[in-house]
Design goal:
The protein has 119 residues and is an alpha+beta fold. It is built from three helices and five strands, in the order βββααββα. The strands form two sheets. It has a three-stranded antiparallel sheet with strand order 1-5-4, with no helix packed on it. The mean pLDDT is 85. It comes from Austropuccinia psidii MF-1.
Length: 119
């Protein structure tokens, strides 16, 4: 599952967003600063789980498991016509997200919908 793909030199690039986080141990994480895009994006309304309801279900449970949702947003694909809005630039070239990146306004609703479907 490729999260990003490198843009070819022959492709026209209209928008990019640079953002790189460097951790204390020297490792870096490639991110996008999508604040400008988010300011033009309408968030999808999707209800978050109600804590009292979740606790009631938990109290009735026969088995309890703990799961880690690693890179949760990256489980959702991005439509090809939207990828050009999710471009990031680094010294090694220009890339675009092929999977839902973190920090985008519309990310939480589809992720929660998937979680509700699974659980």
């Amino acid at each position: 599952m490729d999260v990003i793909r490198k843009i070819g030199h022959d492709e026209i690039v209209e928008i990019t967003t640079p953002f790189l986080i460097t951790w204390h141990d020297g490792k870096s994480r490639l991110c996008g600063d999508f604040r400008a895009l988010n300011s033009y994006t309408k968030a999808e309304k999707y209800p978050k789980p109600k804590i009292p309801h979740s606790l009631d279900n938990l109290a009735k449970a026969k088995y309890i498991i703990k799961l880690a949702c690693m890179k949760g947003f990256h489980q959702n694909g991005v439509k090809p016509n939207s990828m050009k809005l999710l471009r990031i630039i680094r010294s090694m070239g220009i890339y675009e997200y092929t999977r839902m990146p973190f920090g985008i306004k519309i990310g939480p609703a589809p992720f929660q919908r998937i979680m509700d479907t699974i659980f």
